[in-house]
Amino acid sequence: MTLSPNTERIALQVIAKYLRKGNMARCLRDILPSAHLPREDRRQIADLMHEIVRWKKLYGFLMEEQGIPLSPERYYITAMSRAQEQAAVLPPEYRYSCSPYVAKLFEQQHERAAYLNSNPPTTICVNQNITTRDHVLTRLQDEQIPIEKGHLSTAVLSQSSDLKNSPVVLEKLAHVQDENSQLVAQIAAELGEHILDFCAGNGGKTLALASLSKNTKDLVAYETDERRLETLQRRCQEYHAKATIGPLPAESSCDVVLVDAPCTGLGAARRNPEAKYIEDTDDYPQIQLSILHHAAKFIKPEGFLLYVVCTITPEETSDVISTFTSKAPFDTISVSTPSASFLERTPQGFFTAIPQGDLFFLSVLQRKAN
Questions:
Q1: Closest CA to 70 of 86, 84, 58
Q2: How far apart are CA 113 and CA 232, in angstroms?
Q3: Cα–Cα separations (whole angstroms), residue 283 to 55, 312, 319, 324, 348
Q4: Do residues 186 and 304 both lie within one domain?
Q5: CB-based burial, 125-135: b 16+ in 10 Å, e otherwise
Q6: Is-contact 303 295, C-beta < 8 A?
Q7: Rounded CA gap, 87 and 103, in Å?
Q8: Are residues 253 and 302 in the same domain?
Q9: What does DSSP say about strands 218-221 and 244-245: parallel, antiparallel, or unpaired?
Q10: How many domains does the chain have?
Q11: How do residues 335-370 score in pLDDT, each as one tens digit?
């Protein structure tokens, strides 16, 4: 990557702000829109920042070893030199550029550690309620965006971030969404007809559920945050997604309740490398358990609770499920749907395994008959 002098100047401003305040995404949002740079230059800066944040711990270690001040300019030079290629013999904390807590998690998961330091593709979920994947593929080929079909009927991938700004996305023929996230929606759709998306957020999985089922499911989307709720309502209307946006249904009335719970986000570290620097799981396990117990009230006897988090920490995955099932009338079950081939079994659930997707943990829990 070679930046023009003006682009390099703006990049150094973003790096400096990040080193002072953290939060890569906010630093990019604060500076790039007013920098009046061409889209390609903005993309280069975003890619550079991902590289610097991804390898920040390693870069800092290498600079300190050489007695070099930790300045924006030196981070820039170190990133341009691809210094991470020197890291193979270093301890995991520096080799994978992460916190000691995450390095310990990676001790027996070297492949996942390397994977979470790779660059993700841009992936979209085709809106099958108004178009087809073949039509979207043709449109993208006409735009000369390099693409490939995903494993799911709704997924299209590209190594180019231009896909995010394609007219296909702007016209609501698809929305940007990781393929393993789409897989979660597909599993929920395969489990029943009356589905509650309990933590709907901005509506990503609600839109995927509507698309994958072609609006044939009785779908309710619930969200407590007012700003997200407003976005959820708008997006469902724009994407022609048939869903009831709250209030909650009657207790014991749903075939399936999907709980995509808030979490540390370590499984999405390729897109948000700051997740690799968490020191612990904070209060997330308690929050996740509280949400599960609330969501469980809406499931019919023998209905399904689908617990999902985009992380690999044991505290938020197997530990949460063990604690929940010790107190609630639910059993963990295996997945016998067509999606099972995309899952990696664990004692308390599964990790998603579609190549190039984020790492999700999911557990399918069935309510006992009585």
A1: 58
A2: 33
A3: 26, 16, 13, 16, 21
A4: yes
A5: bbbbbebebee
A6: no
A7: 14
A8: yes
A9: parallel
A10: 3
A11: 887 888 999 999 999 999 999 999 999 999 999 997
In one letter, which amino acid is 299?
Answer: I
User: Domain range spanning residue 132?
Assistant: 122-176
Domain boundary residue, one of 43, 68, 90:
90
3-state SS, 288-327, equals HHHHHHHHHHHEEEEEEEEEEECCCCCCCCHHHHHHHHHH
Distance CA 85, CA 147 (A): 28
In a shared domain, residues 219 and 339: yes
Count, residues in the chain: 370
321, 335, 253, 331: which is closest to 292 by C-alpha?
Answer: 321
CA–CA gap between residue 127 and residue 133 (Å, rounded): 8
- Pull the structure tokens for residue 144: 């000369």
Amino acid at 239: Y
pTM of the model: 0.95
- 113 in a structural domain: no
Tokens standing for residue 128:
């099958």
Q: What is the pLDDT of residues 36-77, one digit of tens each?
A: 999 999 999 999 999 999 999 999 999 999 999 999 999 999
Cβ–Cβ < 8 Å for 17, 57: no
Bond from prior residue into 247 cis (ω within 30 degrees of 0): yes
CA 313 to chain centre: 15
Query: Do residue 70 and residue 128 come from a single domain?
Result: no
